[in-house]
């Protein structure tokens, strides 16, 4: 914590109390808090956000250590145990009304913690992770999910090369490095005000985690092809696919949310892409989809999922979901995969991906799909298709990226060829 003062701490407590209600996504609630408290400056807001997200990431751990679920005690404990501020320093830099809480924290003995408490993982999720990855694997993954995610960017090769962008950033004193897996990625420690920067405004750069870049690369879209991004959302992968196609061919971006597709429009304008056609659909069975049946070279399903692979960015997601939600999600994923599969022409590819770390949403969905469509699709080795050094196929045809292994968000992907 760079600077701590009574005003900043009180604002942090107020923001944390709001986000701990978990009534909406944390990023939306925090943005709302900042809109309602415009006196907080551009330097104060990131500091507040760091503590708020630390509390959400380490929620169970902080509750057990502090013996409290109240926002003030959680913030004090986070500043002490996560950020490393001494209790003496805390006492000197917060209002007197919090001094008793600091003394209580000082006198409280450290309790013995279970792995799920230490890593702040809900019990149901820890059981699944432990079963799937084993104790050591689950512990390593859980520890990695507590870290703050890096700030990854993707270079739009229609506008510039990665070398050119890195050189321009360096000339401005912005330190960036190439991502280890994606050939288009740049990793930067902190956001440098990207949205006001020329490289962003002119479409040279987009924010996109390296794992998401790899998923788009897995599609192998080529110029002149017909490609569908079946669950396009705000279009991060759509933009990557359009650039891969060198702005040639036809790329359809489908989504059931008008708001998400609206957010894609300004991004498309910046990108310089003209081969993208957006289409709002009512469901995966929309008649407007059926006219493309059997005509598409590549279909990407970036399926709606739990998002548990992105907990470094969205830590509240682990507290706002249940085991029942995962089961419902898997059923929905299978329906979408089945509907999208009808678009793929013979020898075309169907690429299914999620940002989940759970087998329920990944391998199990693919296995159920293949059982229902016997003789129509066959798996293709995803890691071999990518030919990227450092991606371990793990004796499976599927791609599995994990933050503790690959340094990016958790992603799963399967490539299926239409027979």
Secondary-structure blueprint:
Elements (H helix, E strand, L loop, with lengths): L5 H14 L6 H11 L7 H14 L1 H8 L4 H11 L5 H7 L5 H9 L7 H4 L4 H23 L5 E5 L6 H10 L4 E3 L6 E4 L9 H4 L3 E3 L2 H10 L6 E4 L6 H9 L5 E6 L2 H14 L4 E5 L6 H4 L5 E7 L20 H19 L2 E11 L8 H10 L4 E4 L1 H5 L12 E3 L1 H4 L4 E8 L1
Parallel strand pairs: 5-6, 5-8, 6-7, 8-9
Antiparallel strand pairs: 1-3, 1-4, 2-3, 9-12, 10-12, 11-12
Query: What's the CATH superfamily of the largest domain, by name?
Result: Vaccinia Virus protein VP39
- Percentage of residues in DSSP E strands: 15-25%
Largest sheet: 8 strands, mixed
Mean pLDDT: 94
> Whole-number radius of gyration?
23 Å
Which residue ranges are poorly predicted, with pLDDT under 50 across at least 5 consecutive positions?
A: none
Query: What's the oligomerization state?
Result: single chain
| Known CATH architecture of the largest domain | 3-Layer(aba) Sandwich
> What is the CATH first-level class name of the largest domain?
Alpha Beta
User: How many runs of DSSP E, i.e. beta strands?
Assistant: 12
CATH topology of the largest domain, which one?
Rossmann fold
The amount of helix comes to 40-55%
Give the N-terminus to C-terminus distance in angstroms.
57 Å
**What is the 3D shape?**
globular
Please state the structural category.
alpha/beta
Number of self-contained structural domains: 4
SS summary, helix count: 19
Walk me through the structure.
The protein is globular and about 70 Å long. The protein is an alpha/beta fold and 419 residues long. The strands form two sheets. Strands 5, 6, 7, 8, 9, 10, 11 and 12 form an eight-stranded mixed β-sheet that branches. It has a four-stranded antiparallel β-sheet with strand order 2-3-1-4. It folds into four domains: 108 residues, no CATH class; 32 residues, no CATH class; 57 residues, Sun protein, domain 3 (Alpha-Beta Plaits), CATH 3.30.70; 209 residues, Rossmann fold.
